[in-house]
Amino acid sequence: MASITYLRLGKGIGGGAEMTGIDNRELTRLNHVKCGEIVHIQVITPTKPIRLKSRLIGIDPNMSVILAFGNDASWIKALPHLKENNDIIVRFMNSEQQQANVTAFRTAIQKIMTITGRWLVLDYPKSIETVGLRKHRRVDVSIEASLVNVENETVLANGVLIDLSINGCAFVCKKEETLSEGSIYQLMANLGDGSPTVTLSVSLKSVKELGVNNEVQYGLVFTTPEQVNSAVQQLLLHHLQK
């Protein structure tokens, strides 16, 4: 079975959450990622990181990773920072794997090439790290979200997801009397940056009084397994980019 590493708090690739248990076998898997895979780039700047979206053109094992060079407003803004040897962070979701996971590595820009298209050529990473979720593993997160009435789509509670697994999550908000155990709701997380809102059907399974500021922790279970992997990957990616 493939080796999967898990998230823990600390300082890591992006200066936020740390990913542990680096396994060089992940580099072999990187070589087999399909062309056209959506890639998220974080350009390191002296002030605020710039986030870009690209797609994988190809990988030359042990030599380089080649990405498509975009032409939208965010890429134009990033141009002054897209120079040789500048550091960037690359993240992508493994859409072909059954587990929900996000792969990341830190590297540097080799060059910008213009052949049949405009390409961003990166150094091949020395190590690669994966944040993964399995059935009984939870990851600490902090993602703003809302619980919504299924029938009339009214927002019942605004709060924060504080942990996430492939089966469900914990949602903290002010106590809301209209929420009841066993009921079905829509969990919605607006990730911003032009990303579509992540929506999941959830069942409220537990209620825990936190004893502070009238806050409650609701235990939620995902009820639509066919949607979970993609949605959880998006939530993980958003959390790692914060």
Short description:
The chain is mainly β and 242 residues long. It has two domains: 25-132, Pnp Oxidase, Chain A; 138-241, predicted glycosyltransferase like domains (Thrombin, subunit H).
Strand content: over 45%
**How big is the Rg?**
19 Å
Q: Give the termini separation.
A: 31 Å
Q: Provide the residue-averaged pLDDT.
A: 82
- Could you say what the CATH topology of the largest domain is called? Pnp Oxidase, Chain A
Form type: elongated
Specify the biggest β-sheet. Answer: 6 strands, antiparallel, barrel
Q: Summarize the helix and strand pattern as letters.
A: EEHEEEHEEEEEEEEEEH
The number of distinct structural domains comes to: 2
Number of strands: 15
User: In the CATH hierarchy, what is the architecture of the largest domain at level 2?
Assistant: Roll
Strand order of the largest sheet: 3-4-5-8-7-6
- How many distinct helices? 3
Fraction of residues in helices? 10-25%
CATH class of the largest domain: Mainly Beta
